[in-house]
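Database export, one record per block. Field names are fixed; values are copied verbatim from the stored entry.
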Amino acid sequence: MTLRLGLVGGGWISRQHLDALQRLGRTELIGVVAGSRATADEVTAQWGGTSYDDLDRMLEAGRPDVVYVAVPPHRAVGVAERLVAHRIPFLTEKPLSALDAEGPARLAEVIEQNRLVVAVGYHLRALDMMPEVRARLAAKPAQLFVARWLDSTPEPAWWGRTDQGGGQVVEQATHLYDLARYLVGDATVVGAASTRDLATSTPEVDVADSSAAIIRFESGAVGSLANTRKISTAVIEVEIVSDGLLTRLSKHPDRGQGDWHASFDDGTVIRAISAECDPYEKQAAAFLDAVEWADPGGVLCTYEDALRTYSLTRSVVAATGAPG
């Protein structure tokens, strides 16, 4: 079955998704709506389909079977509401919103009531090393989760605005908070703090420079997560301490989205493995399978599950007492 694909958004992440979908060969791009008609035209010139100025017009004329959504967070709820109203399965990028809490919660209820297949793009769940990581942690449960996302400020103008992107914790480090939930379990925030150097800030950027949080998992384990947007050479890594086992996950930021590595150190032997497959491709395959089988639970991350991660990151920001 070849599914008719609609795309909302035409930025860098959209093209990652389109590359993965093209390799799978299970969809045909029929329509694109982007921030500008010129951006939509760039996408259709490379991947095919028709450019549209309006989402409803694309849904009416293009009749997509599925839609991918990759828009700035402050626009995500509005787009998702239109797709839910049309009962169209979709995969949306994280986070679910920038600041809105009521919109995603309302959507989660309607999605569940209608048993609509909706996936959220926490692609790290699709890394092919994750089954071994989860199996080892099942045998030796985590006691401590330590994670860092230390990076520079992304280029899109919306990213630096709290009301449009939500800030680094909500928009970027959310991947680490989702991994914490995926690997260790649900958690609550014990405390958090953030910094912002007003002397070096610009009016166009109002998000925090750096943030750190302590969380406690329902299992009793604790976590420490830190992030910054102020360095040039990125460091993205996770360390998980169990009884007699240290699990490390790390990424080389300049070598592609799938270039993640894991090691397991039990004090005697260190086993090292690397991701072999593109996580965007595996994520897409799971989503398309779920659509074809009409199985909302077949996706790697449901909207309801992503809402829990979103709520956790919003709680971290609230605990800092400052905007995101």
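Remark 1: The chain has a mean pLDDT of 96.
Remark 2: Residues 24 and 285 are 7 Å apart (CA to CA).
End of record.
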